[in-house]
Amino acid sequence: MDLTQIRYFLSLARTLNFTRAAEACHVTQPALTKSIQRLEEEIGGPLLLRERALTQLTALGQSMLPLLEQIYLAAERAKEHAAGLKRQIASPLRIGFTAEAPMAPFMPVFAELAAKLAGFELCLVDGSDAGLSDALLHGGLDAAILTGAASLPDRLNRWTLFTDAKVLVMPPDHPLATAETVSIAALDGATVICRAPDGAMAKLLALALQEHGVCPATRHQGGTTSQVLDLVRAGFGITLSSALVALPGGLLKRKLSEHLTHDVVLAAVAGRPFTRATDAFIKLARAREWANAAGETEACPL
Predict the structure, then answer these.
(1) Do 160 and 182 share a domain, yes or no?
(2) Residue 261: how many other CB atoms lie within 10 Å
(3) Helix (H, G, I), strand (E, B), or coil: what is residue 253?
(4) Is 252 a member of any domain?
(5) What is this structure's pTM?
(6) Are residues 189 and 253 in the same domain?
């Protein structure tokens, strides 16, 4: 059976008149009659009793009526839902950010999307490179901002946007705050705070130990970037951060004499159809002059 047959039957069940049902469906009466007959053949029995001017539903027709109504209503709702998706009434963008990637440079891009796309809905997700890559592949994210050091699956397209430098973040009264540039060797015996066991601070400490024999006195860990910065502001130690992060009040950035950088890349699943918001974000991000944009976000002095 098809939806046309069901629509004709529902109209006929309401009017109990072939002529009026045909007029309501904008078809000829013979066409409607043939469609009803085909429906009866597929169901396996008569749905209507035809007695000259009198038309009635059979017992089979009465039992099938609510079922066919549900089928037709569900089909109509599905069509409406599909039409709504096609019109993109909502413009969602689910984008992941690894803890190593700065978010501030992307705010002008998000602002432009919000101004241009009706129904723009932004969802930001924090995670590791591996976790965000997995979310991309399984449809949990539309795009992700990752580090250039990440080993990405072949199914992911990647575009390098800009290069980010690492800086030390500390409170103004920290002994290292008096210098404009800090050497990795100065971290020997310092108290540090890591974002994650495999995060940037942990990697820096591993490098410091390997190349300079430097070992911190204490290593705290925060689950989120906000927690790490709160610990730094409370005097628990220093941490490593993107040079492009706009720090909260009461914290300072200091350059490292050993220039530590990594690429910031945009990743999305290759060959997957994008939503309107995702497509617009990727185009804006790839076309943006990031060298200038990065400078715009430098809100705190080094």
Answers:
(1) no
(2) 11
(3) strand
(4) yes
(5) 0.62
(6) yes
